[in-house]
Each structure stands twice: as structure tokens, then as C-alpha cells.
Design goal:
This protein is of the alpha+beta class. It has 19 helices and 23 strands. It comes from Adlercreutzia caecimuris B7.
């Protein structure tokens, strides 16, 4: 027995038990190696006239024997000599595929244009194996592996055999044609592992379709089928016999070979895209958008992405997994590569295929993710451009999309502390109180009065209630629009954005500043005229004692009581200071860990022109402090109800109203 030419026991144990984390990928690795061997033969035929090979004759065959518990992967590729078996399989981490690819690239670089037949194509060889350890994944499931190979142009075949522990033997063997057979003798089943499932027709077909469906050569396998047995015609007077069925076997190509994402968009119908999406991503509805990308240059990759028509049921749960399927040279590397998508585009489904990625030796993760980040940036721009196109060209479809996924885009701005607003802000839609429809921020500004410098919004739990709020109707009466935000993430999103776009100051294009985003109930909107300010100041001074008495009655509930400069019909309104609105606090209260809430500084703004204020003045002048306290409490609770907030003591509020009705 020959010893492995490295620290065999330690290194082999490391590869089998540590590098690979998923036992079922052994078949992917063996098929990838077989594909490499077929590739090498085909490309050699382009430059060697003595090698006559037709591409249609090249294939990979997978077989099994349930009784003996073996899985066999065969190819009719270039094969290996005795020395190559010793070098490639006896030295762990030696990669003949890597050497082949490097040699072809060097030969192409040194040759003159057109010097050799097909030489220009050799630099684009998508050889899958680069590290030479994929073969050893077979020992994760096999107690012994036997490799029988015959090199092209040789009359001899050799067998390499090992239990993956101490070493290996190489002995003469028989093989009718060039190529290689890898026979894996499966381990015995245990309570934890059922290795026998790999030696079944269903198990192998499932693994081929999952990991190797797009290998460019046909993967053939003998499959069991059934057919109806034609019964003889019954004699006269006899009943026809019941139909019978018989089983038979037939060799079928299991993989589809040509990935749909490698085909030009002009060559694929939307129906084909829809069918691929529904089959591979387990959806029963057609996608809302299909995005096809073929990139060539410093980084080569193909991508096919889909925007679903509806949000998956678990999209907002902690168990939801985002990411695109990642392929390298048509071989599945990762089911869900999260690095390819930002969280806010996590609803996008699809695949990315690039042979330029530098994988680690198990191919299950990336060795350097700089390439991946570059692809991710380009895909993000592509998704953004496609959504913007849908927004502009098919508004009805975009509004349906936004109804499903708008919350994700808004949360993306909030979660990034506003860093993602340049990407996402112009994709957002909000309901316009003035225009009575969903609008973008740009459409809001296009309809704003000349000289506007802000975007106004109101946040709450109901669009209808927001539309009737006193502060909203006041802003509308002044000719400005208000965005009615009824989603729980809306106010957080608006605060994270803070500003949007730019406008010229006093018509000076050289001097620009952003539009500020303002909550109508949380800050000074800048809409009060000097005359209105003066009237409010005078009313505040002349009623200082009344406001002091009301403030004392509402002690612990409000910071102060003031004359409002923005009410028209309502008697009072509750506003907040410090950037935290009533609506935001209500949302926070409904979240887990709601004990630690930000301080809320409330102000009761009173309409000095409303008849209720005259009643308060009269009660104060008459010295009826009890009535002042009661009316102050009623005004405050009434203002809370308008905001959609239940008073702290609903019973006391109801009793006070009942007293007024006597």
C-alpha cells in the first residue's frame, strides 16, 4: 500500500469532517470532476488532430447498486494514466484541473492570433475543480472508494483504491474505453445517518437536479418506468381482463444542461421565465418582474432575478432567509447567498452564476468576498433601475408591488439610519391628502406651492382619521399637501430620512438647500404668519393666569398650555416637542421591550378664537376653579381621542361629559 504524500491522516480527516458540512454534496463534487475530465478531452480535440471527439458523444453516467450499496459516477473524458492517478489522487489538494487551466491560459497568451485551432476559446475554459480536494468528499459517505481510469490514447487501465485512512493501492484494471469510473462503497447506516438513501434512484435524481442540473454535459442515468401491458382480445362471451402494468428501465438525461440564465433574453419567452421561477422558487403566481443580467468585463457573471407578485407569508419573521442562489460554472455553490442582496431588496429571488469567483476549497463559501461585493453592488443598481422603470411605466403594477413590499423599502431607510435613502427614497409611495392618491416624494413636490421648503406628513394608525385631524386640515387649508402615513414604520422612516431633494433658495440656483421632512404634530411647520404670531403672543399674555391654572390641572400630563397658531375649527390639539410624536410612542408601546420608552413632552395648544375658550375665560374670571380643572381635563382627553389615543382614565372622562349634559 502506498502512503498519501502529505500528512494524510490529519489532512484527510480535516477535509472529510471539517471542510465539508453537507454530506450530500459528494455527488456534486464527483460530477464536477467528471465534467472537468470531459472538458479537457473536448478542448484537447480542438488542437490535437489525433483526438477525434464529437461533443454530442461526451456524457457523464451515474449508477447505483442498492444491494452492494455503491454509487458510481462515470465519464468518457480524458482519463488518467497510472502516474496521473498517483499524482492527482495520491497527493491531497493537488489539482490537475487547476494546472490544465493555467497551462491553457499560458499557451493562449504566448500564441499568435489564429495560430492554433480553437486556441482563443481555451482561455474561457470553465474548469470547475481548482483545489483537488472535491474528490475526497466521497469519504464522507463512503468506507471505500475505487477509481478505474483509462487515459485517452492508452491501452492500459488502472484502478486506484483507498479506505481514506492510511493510503491507497494502484493496480492494473480493465476498462473498454477512455474515461474514469468512481465507485463509492457506502458506509453502514447508523441511528444518526442513513447512507443507503444515496444508493437509490430517487435520492440520486434529487441530488443531480439540485446541485448539478446545469452541468453542460448530459448526466445520464437508468431510471425505472412503468407501462401498460396490452392484453389479448377476449374471446366471445368472455369479460375483458383488468389492465396490468409492467416496470422497465430506460436511460434518461437527468439534467437540463443549459441554464436559462445563460440564454439571451431575446431567446427566452416570458412564459419560460415564469415557469422556471414557479418551479425553482416554489411559487404559484407569476413574478411581477423579471430581471436578466449578462455582464462581461473585469467581472463576468450572469444573473436572473425575479420580483415576486406577493410577499411570502414568513417574510417579516426572523426565520426568513433572503439571498440569491449562487452558481460557479453552472454548479450550485450556495442556496441562499445573503451577501448578494441588501436587506431592503431581500424579497428578490433568483440566481447568479460566475466562474470568476474565488471559492474556498469546499466551494461552500467564498475565499475572498470582494468579487461578491462588486457583483452585489451592480445587482443592487439593476434592481433599483428596474423598480424605477416599473414605477414610471406601469404605475398600477408598481402600486401593487409597493403594497406587498413597500414596508421593506421603508424599513431599509430606517434600519440604515438614512444611509440608504439615496437608493430608496424615490421608490417610496405615500397617500396624498390633497391629491387623494398614492404619490412619490417627487410628485408631492411637483404639486407643492411655489416657495415650498418642506414635505409635511402626519403619522397614525388610520388614513381616514389622519385626514380629519385638525392639524392636517389646517395645513391643507393653507394650500399645502400632507402625506398620510398609516404604516407602523412610516414615521421612523421619515425621521431617518430627515430631508429629501433640493430646492433653490429665493430663486438662486447657486444657493440650494434640501426639503425638510416635517411631522405636522411634532414641530413648528413654519407656516405661521407674523400677524398670527403676534395675536397668539397677545392672547397668551392676557390669559397668563388662566393658562397657569390649566397647566396646574394637567400637571404631569403636559409641559405647558399655549395659544395655538395653527388651529381653525378645533378647540384644542395636543402636540409634542423634541421630535418624538404621539404616534411614534404608540407604535413603540406595541413593541417588545416597551418599558424603556423615550420621554414625551406634550403641549396643549388652545384655539383662542373658539367658543370653548370663551367659556374657560368666563369660568376663570368667575373664580370657578373646579370648572377650569374639569374643562382643562376634557380638552386634553378630547385632543387625545382625536389623535386616536385613549385617555388615561376613560371613566372620569365619561363622567365629566355626563355632568355637562345634565
Amino acid at each position: 500500500m502506498r502512503k498519501f504524500k502529505t500528512e494524510s491522516k490529519k489532512l484527510l480527516d480535516l477535509m472529510i469532517n471539517s471542510i465539508y458540512t453537507n454530506r450530500e454534496i459528494f455527488l456534486r463534487e464527483l460530477i464536477s470532476n467528471a465534467s472537468d475530465a470531459v472538458d479537457k478531452l473536448y478542448f484537447r480535440s480542438l488542437t490535437d488532430p489525433d483526438v477525434a471527439v464529437g461533443r454530442d458523444d461526451l456524457a457523464i453516467t451515474v449508477g447505483y447498486d442498492s444491494e452492494v450499496r455503491t454509487v458510481t459516477v462515470s465519464d468518457n473524458g480524458i482519463g488518467m494514466t497510472k502516474d496521473e492517478l498517483d499524482r492527482n489522487l495520491g497527493t491531497i489538494a493537488h489539482s490537475d484541473s487547476f494546472e490544465f487551466k493555467a497551462a491553457q491560459a499560458e499557451a493562449a497568451a504566448e500564441s499568435e492570433p489564429g495560430e492554433a485551432k480553437g486556441l482563443g476559446d481555451l482561455t474561457d475554459v470553465d474548469i470547475i475543480g481548482q483545489f483537488g480536494v472535491g474528490f475526497y468528499s466521497a469519504f464522507m459517505v463512503g468506507k471505500k472508494v475505487r477509481v478505474v481510469s483509462r487515459a485517452i490514447g492508452s491501452d492500459e487501465a488502472w484502478a486506484w483504491e483507498s479506505n481514506g485512512v492510511d493510503g491507497y493501492d494502484i493496480k492494473p484494471a480493465e476498462r473498454a474505453e477512455h474515461g474514469t469510473d468512481v465507485i463509492v462503497y457506502l458506509k453502514d447506516d447508523t441511528d444518526e445517518e442513513s447512507f443507503g438513501t444515496f444508493a437509490t434512484e430517487h435520492g440520486l435524481i434529487q441530488l443531480i437536479k439540485r446541485y448539478s442540473n446545469y452541468v453542460r454535459y448530459p448526466i445520464k442515468m437508468e431510471v425505472t418506468k412503468s407501462r401498460k401491458v396490452e392484453a389479448p382480445e377476449p374471446a366471445e362471451g368472455e369479460q375483458p381482463s383488468a389492465p396490468t402494468w409492467e416496470s422497465y428501465t430506460e436511460v434518461e438525461t437527468i439534467n437540463s444542461m443549459i441554464p436559462i440564465w445563460k440564454r439571451k433574453k431575446s431567446e427566452v419567452s416570458q412564459e419560460e421565465y415564469n415557469e422556471f421561477y414557479k418551479t425553482d422558487f416554489h411559487d404559484f403566481e407569476d413574478p411581477a418582474r423579471t430581471i436578466s443580467v449578462h455582464a462581461e468585463g473585469s467581472l463576468n457573471y450572469d444573473a436572473l432575478m425575479f420580483v415576486p407578485s406577493r410577499a411570502p407569508w414568513d417574510m417579516y419573521s426572523k426565520d426568513y432567509q433572503r439571498g440569491l442562489a449562487l452558481y460557479s460554472a453552472n454548479v450550485l455553490i450556495m442556496d441562499k447567498c445573503e451577501e448578494l442582496l441588501p436587506d431592503y431588496f431581500g424579497f428578490v429571488r433568483g440566481v447568479v452564476d460566475s466562474s470568476d469567483l474565488t471559492l474556498n476549497i469546499s466551494r461552500e463559501t467564498l475565499q475572498h468576498n470582494g468579487q461578491l461585493r462588486a457583483i452585489a453592488r451592480r445587482l443592487e443598481k439593476k434592481i433599483k433601475a428596474d423598480l424605477a422603470s416599473m414605477r414610471d411605466d406601469d404605475r398600477e403594477a408598481y402600486e401593487r408591488f409597493f403594497e406587498q413590499f413597500g414596508r421593506t423599502l421603508k424599513f431599509g431607510i430606517y434600519q440604515s439610519y438614512g444611509m440608504a435613502k439615496d437608493t430608496l427614497a424615490d421608490l417610496l409611495l405615500f397617500y396624498s391628502a390633497k391629491q387623494q392618491k398614492m404619490v412619490t416624494l417627487d410628485e408631492y413636490l411637483a404639486d407643492a406651492p411655489t416657495g415650498s421648503d418642506a414635505i409635511f406628513y402626519a403619522a397614525g394608525d388610520s388614513r381616514e382619521r389622519l385626514a380629519s385631524m385638525p392639524l392636517v386640515t389646517t395645513v391643507l387649508a393653507k394650500g399645502y399637501d400632507v402625506l398620510l402615513c398609516d404604516a407602523d414604520v412610516d414615521e421612523f422612516c421619515m425621521m431617518a430620512m430627515g430631508t429629501y431633494g433640493e430646492h433653490a433658495v429665493d430663486g438662486d440656483d447657486e444657493n440650494k438647500q434640501p426639503y425638510f421632512i416635517k411631522n405636522v404634530g411634532a414641530e413648528d411647520l413654519g407656516l405661521t404668519t407674523e400677524e398670527e404670531k403676534k395675536e397668539a403672543e397677545e392672547a397668551t399674555e392676557s390669559n397668563a393666569e388662566l393658562f397657569a391654572a390649566m397647566g396646574e390641572a394637567l400637571q404631569g400630563k403636559v409641559e405647558r398650555v399655549v395659544v395655538s397658531t395653527r388651529l381653525t375649527d378645533a378647540p384644542a390639539v395636543v402636540t409634542s416637542e423634541g421630535g418624538v410624536s404621539l404616534a411614534m410612542v404608540q407604535v413603540l408601546k406595541s413593541q417588545p421591550g416597551a418599558d424603556d420608552l423615550p420621554d414625551l413632552h406634550l403641549v396643549l395648544e388652545v384655539n383662542a378664537k373658539h367658543p370653548v375658550f370663551a367659556t374657560l375665560q368666563a369660568a376663570h374670571e368667575a373664580g370657578d376653579d373646579g370648572k377650569v380643572r374639569t374643562y382643562a381635563g376634557l380638552l386634553f382627553d378630547q385632543a387625545l381621542l382625536v389623535e386616536g389615543i385613549m385617555p388615561d382614565n376613560p371613566l372620569a372622562f365619561a363622567q365629566a361629559v355626563a355632568e355637562l349634559m345634565k
